[in-house]
Design goal:
The complex is a heterodimer of chains A (285) and B (237). With 285 residues, chain A is an all-alpha fold. In chain A, 73% of the residues lie in helices and 3% in strands. Chain A has one domain. In chain A, helix 1 runs parallel beside helix 5, helix 6 crosses helix 8 and helix 9 runs parallel beside helix 11. Chain A is globular, with a radius of gyration of 18 Å. By secondary structure, chain B is an alpha/beta fold. A six-stranded mixed beta sheet of chain B has the order 6-7-8-3-9-10, with helices on both faces. In chain B, strands 2-1-4-5 form a four-stranded antiparallel beta sheet, covered by helices on one side. The two termini of chain B are 31 Å apart. Classes of the chains: A mainly alpha (285), B alpha/beta (237). Chains A and B meet through helix 6 and helix 7 of A and helix 2, strand 6, helix 3 and helix 6 of B.
């Protein structure tokens, strides 16, 4: 029983980790909180849904394609919404991105309706390991986390622009001094972030369902995870995402299902009390 | 090589620089001295393209560069070593140096320059794989200079490189700057340590309250009674 719950927790945690990675990248690079992130995740879910359903593509073609589209959407969000108010205080960015979150969510309700729709992954069957039963669909989720984290590390540590992104995250003034184009680097962070949001949205839509408010809880959870793991920290987002997924699943199974989301926030309060900088350093290492 | 004229810079309602004119000729080592808050950093940041002036002109090699972004100035051969060093603490020394050559695509020449930097600063060679945040203050300053040199600048701007360093390290730094200049790099040095700066420099400017209050050769300024009283303490030189 406990092994089964652990497996479920890792699956949920994988989606949270993907979602939190995109969220933390933006904070690391631009020092802003992007509340429209929840809407990007939701749009990513619907983009994947449309590509599989209307365009008839397989899930494993549709998801990367949707990620590219949402990467572009991330860049648009930066240049059209965030950049114009940069330098006018944190509250300004918070307000415009929250506004965008509502516009996109209500827009999605008008266009897609409120009915939840599941994305067909085209993967069936289950695996049994001892007492643990896990669907192949859920294994795909864990696989996606592994692959995407691997890709992210290649981007951040091998690509020129990725190194520039880390430089901006670690020392903005230093990055400016050596002439890195901060706007372009930040736009790149928004692109990667949009792609990761889409991956989380596509997987959530396949495991549960795509619907206009599907991004709300992941947004809140990402916020918690990123504080839990350390603002701007990549390993912190991965470990934090898995931890929150496990905490939620286990507390839901053994303490109270109704309060499972509440436990996440109890953990958040504890972290803020005892380790306010998070479990990992706040710099992108 | 670098000429600025009529520079005015404002931060909101505060005027940081007014009507500043300064020139640096090819091969020179020029310094700007002045008290804390006189506008020295603002001047360097404006020349480097990090601050846009409200009025005035900056010309590099005769071409108008006023208001050009720092990414473009670096490509034109100007590099800034910022005050406070601002290295990338969670990257290795090697990665920090590589980022200095961000806009260069001549891999062979970059390797050559890296070798040159490591010869200039042997302490960095021994610590190439170490996280830059674990270097001492003096070593971090060497790294910041090395990182700037990796863009192969013809003009190097240094903002308070001696700040917070032990006297022996400051001396070493002075020698390095002199050698660099002798090897053909034009240098504009901003310093609170006026004695060290004027001893090194061919020429100097005095910046006070955002205006140029005087200029002359390093030697003349060093022996000027007003400069001695205001910027060098009352000690005889």
């Amino acid at each position: 029983m406990i092994a089964q719950q652990l497996a479920n927790g890792v699956v949920l945690g994988s989606i949270y980790a993907l979602s939190a990675l995109g969220f933390t990248l933006i904070f690391g690079a631009a020092r802003v909180v992007n509340f429209a992130y929840g809407a990007l995740l939701m749009l990513g879910g619907f983009a994947t849904l449309l590509l599989t359903q209307s365009a008839g593509l397989g899930f494993f073609v549709a998801l990367p394609l949707a990620m590219l589209i949402m990467a572009g959407a991330g860049v648009l969000v930066f240049y059209l919404v965030v950049r114009p108010v940069l330098g006018r205080g944190d509250l300004a960015v918070l307000l415009v991105t929250t506004g965008l979150l509502y516009i996109l969510r209500e827009g999605a309700i008008i266009v897609f309706g409120t009915e939840p729709r599941q994305i067909d992954m085209g993967v069936e069957g289950i695996v049994e390991i001892g007492d643990v039963v896990i669907t192949n669909q859920r294994l795909v989720v864990i696989g996606c986390l592994v692959v995407l984290v691997g890709l992210l590390y290649v981007v951040l540590y091998r690509l020129r622009i990725g190194k520039a992104l880390r430089a901006v995250a670690q020392n903005r003034a230093g990055a400016e001094a050596i002439g890195l184009n901060i706007n372009r680097v930040t736009a790149f962070a928004f692109a990667v972030s949009g792609g990761l949001a889409c991956a989380a949205g596509g997987l959530l839509g396949a495991i549960y369902a795509a619907e206009p408010d599907m991004g709300d809880l992941p947004l809140l959870k990402s916020f918690v995870i990123v504080i839990f793991g350390g603002l701007g920290s990549v390993p912190g987002a991965i470990v934090g995402g898995l931890a929150i997924g496990l905490i939620e699943t286990l507390s839901g199974a053994y303490i109270s299902f109704a309060f499972k989301d509440g436990f996440t926030f109890v953990v958040l309060i504890a972290v803020l009390l005892f380790r306010p900088t998070g479990l990992f350093s706040s710099r992108m290492t | 090589m670098l000429e600025a004229s009529g520079l005015r810079v404002c931060y909101g309602p505060v005027t940081a620089l007014s009507d500043v004119a300064i020139a640096v000729a090819h091969g020179e080592l020029v310094t700007v001295i002045g008290a804390n808050g006189a506008g020295k950093s603002t001047l360097l940041r404006t020349l480097a393209g990090l601050v846009r002036p409200a009025a005035g002109h900056v010309r590099l090699d005769g071409a108008e560069t006023t208001g050009l972004a720092s990414s473009l100035m670096v490509r034109r051969g100007l590099a800034l070593v910022p005050e406070g060093r601002h290295i990338f603490p969670d990257m290795t020394v090697a990665e920090n140096l590589d980022l200095g050559a961000y806009y260069r695509h001549d891999a062979a020449a970059v390797r050559q320059d890296r070798e040159r930097v490591l010869t200039l600063f042997p302490v960095l060679r021994e610590r190439l794989r170490l996280g830059a945040g674990r270097l001492s203050g003096g070593q971090q300053q060497m790294l910041a200079i090395g990182r700037a040199l990796m863009s192969r600048p013809r003009l190097l701007l240094l903002d308070e490189p001696s700040l917070g360093l032990a006297p022996a390290i400051v001396q070493q730094l002075g020698r390095i700057l002199r050698d660099l200049n002798a090897s053909g790099v034009t240098i504009l040095l901003v310093e609170q340590n006026a004695r060290m700066a004027l001893r090194l420099a061919h020429r100097g400017y005095i910046l006070a309250n955002g205006r140029i209050a005087g200029s002359g050769t390093g030697y003349d300024l060093l022996h000027d009674p007003m400069v001695q009283r205001t910027y060098l303490g009352s000690l005889a030189v």
